[in-house]
Amino acid sequence: MLRLDERHPIFISIVFNIVSVIAKLMIFSNTLSRAVYSEIFHSVGDSLNSVTLFIGARIYRSRPSLRYPFGLGRVLYISSLFSSIILSGSIFYMIIAENLRIYYGDRQGDLYLYGNTYWIYMLLLTVFDTITMFLSIMIMTSREGPNLVLKPLVLEDIMGISGNAMASLSLLLSNKSLDLLISSIIAFIILGGSIHIGFRSIEALIGHSAPKEIVARIIKIALSIPGVVDVNDIKTMIIEPGRYLAIVQIEVKEAMTIKEVEEIKEEIIEEIRRSLPEIRYLILDIVKPREPAKSYISLLKELKEL
């Protein structure tokens, strides 16, 4: 039986997007719909994003080396950032500028009237995005756990479904002013998605922390081990999609022997790795009790404000 992983829906998405570009070019050549015109670039951008995700899904599986001790997972964010710049820059400007030129230049008469069946063809293209979206969700919710590489693909599919549906509505209503409006809305959808991807990529490259739920869970695991007095500090940083480095400073009872401290250390590491597979690297700094007491309370309060 074929075992599905995150690369399968991404590859299917690439194929579907290429087919969508060809289909939309054919529909546009027969209707000159501005909404369909926008969707052509939308599919081109989705193709670039899918290729980026596919490359990232392959690279981040690479083993760390002496040159790249934490692996190459961040390549995904670099390529995603370039992809978002392409989408939010040239494509958005191209669509909006062309729409304004047509509107203020009173060239709406150059647009064709639409046939009665093209809206159906456009609507059928939403099936492509629906298939890859449900396949991605199925893998993400499998017993193997969620894969964060697929989250951008699900977002891409949702944007694709909404864009195709609006373009289909524009063809159905055959209103030229409405067509320009829907085309501009699709352009803003592209812009919004691109900004989201770009922000996510920049945040990861800077080195944002693990989700607060994971950080809180690390603190609670450490405090649950007998002999641990406090958690003074915890620092986490993303290493690759869905994988984090954690550095934790904990206090243990002053009267403990070296052997007892080592046993506590091993128990904490074992429990965190069992409960939180997202933590790829874990560093524990064990110290004697110091002031102020119960530092973990302030850490948990700070987490709630994130």
3D structure, described in words:
- With 306 residues, the protein is mainly alpha-helical.
- A hairpin with a 2-residue loop joins strand 1 and strand 2.
- Helix 2 packs antiparallel against helix 3, helix 2 runs parallel beside helix 7 and helix 8 packs antiparallel against helix 10.
- The chain starts with 6 loop residues before the first helix and ends with a helix.
- The model has no long low-confidence stretch (mean pLDDT 80).
Tell me the layout of helices and strands.
Layout: H1 7-31, H2 34-59, H3 75-104, H4 118-124, H5 126-140, H6 151-173, H7 176-206, H8 212-224, E1 228-240, E2 243-252, H9 258-275, E3 279-287, H10 295-304
Parallel strand pairs: 2-3
Antiparallel strand pairs: 1-2
Helix pairs in contact: 1-2, 1-5, 2-3, 2-6, 2-7, 3-7, 4-6, 5-6, 6-7, 8-10
The largest sheet is:
3 strands, mixed
> What is the percent of helical residues?
55-70%
For the largest sheet, list the strands in their spatial order. Answer: 1-2-3
Number of domains: 2
Low-pLDDT ranges: none
The secondary-structure class comes to mainly alpha
* Rg over C-alpha atoms, rounded to the nearest angstrom: 25 Å
So what's the CATH class of the largest domain? Mainly Alpha
- Total DSSP E strands: 3
- Provide the succession of SSEs: HHHHHHHHEEHEH
CA-CA gap between termini: 43 Å
If you average the pLDDT, what whole number results?
80
Shape-level CATH architecture of the largest domain: Up-down Bundle
